[in-house]
Amino acid sequence: MSETADLELVHLSKRYGTTTAVDAIDLRVPGGSYCCLLGPSGCGKTSTLRMIAGHERASDGDILLGGRNITHLSAAERGTAMMFQSYALFPHLNALDNVAFSLRMRGMPKAQRHARAMELLALVAMEAYAQRKPAELSGGQQQRVALARALATEPRVLLLDEPLSALDPFLRVKMRAELKRWQKELGFTFVHVTHSQEEAMALADKVVLMNGGRIEQEGPPHDVFNAPRTEFVARFLGSHNVLEVGGAVVAVRADKTRLWRSTPGRTCLRAQVRAVEYQGTYVLVTLLRERLDGGAGGHAMPDEITAMLHEAEFYARPWQPGETAWVSWDDAHALQETRLAA
Q1: Which CATH superfamily is 7-226 part of?
Q2: How much helix, strand and coil, in percent to the nearest 5, is found in the chain?
Q3: Under CATH, domain 240-334 is a member of which superfamily?
Q4: pTM for this model (two decimals)
Q5: Residue boundaries of the structural domains of the chain
Q6: How far apart are CA 43 and CA 178, in angstroms?
Q7: Alpha-carbon distances of 259 from 71, 176, 320, rounded to whole Å
Q8: 68-69 and 60-65: which strand pairing?
Q9: 290-334 pLDDT, tens per residue?
């Protein structure tokens, strides 16, 4: 097993002509942790991953791994390995030879490299499929082979480019649990690019939310979700309402939002129910805000509000589109910045 090492990005930038894809970001990923780079398309997360891997040249800044500057080293010299979104398995090679390929390129004897490849296939529960070619494997099985191949060089950091995006929803949930388990068992540092908030929250020790080439916020998933720093973070993570109350802009979790048929006697907003969606354990109610608050001092500011109501609470007296509701909340977090996007 490789020794764990901190990964550090220091004022790292990437420009394509006059376009800045990554804008002088600073980031430290502790060795042996699972870090997810999260954000919308074009936010710079994949460019960042490719610079760490050595597949893109940094325009400015440095990349350090265990205190060693790897910014200008080739991909093979860095101590990193990349697991691509497409898995990039060789179609003419079976699973065993796909995993053993990098060991073959290093000159390892056939018997030795095949023994090592079988160990890695066993790690991901694929030893029974060693002789099958990629076309004979399911998407989840191909992913396991790709992971085993990436681990063959014993990297200090494993880089994953949206590895679950090609899988169906059921398999995606199953495979993300296995990714987390493998990361803990191996002790490697994983850096995982995704646009899925749910995926990042489930996997990461550290979430890094990017927007417009910059880091909007980073930290443990629980901290980022419960204390978003900006309007962009609150809205992108979902399950948050961004409201202006008493001159302040606050984020309110949808599951902390309450609906009333009359004024509840505390700070509230008046809204009209627009849509109702049954989600299984809860019902999602979407409303259009009519007033800032219930008093005469309120002013018109149409905006969408969502409330997640437990199904038992909702069906005790269901809300219907067109009904007027008074909206209150149990908790609110003041935002430091209200810019939406770069």
Answers
A1: P-loop containing nucleotide triphosphate hydrolases (3.40.50.300)
A2: 30, 35, 35
A3: Nucleic acid-binding proteins (2.40.50.140)
A4: 0.86
A5: 7-226, 240-334
A6: 27
A7: 53, 35, 12
A8: antiparallel
A9: 854 444 444 444 489 999 999 999 999 999 999 999 999 988 888
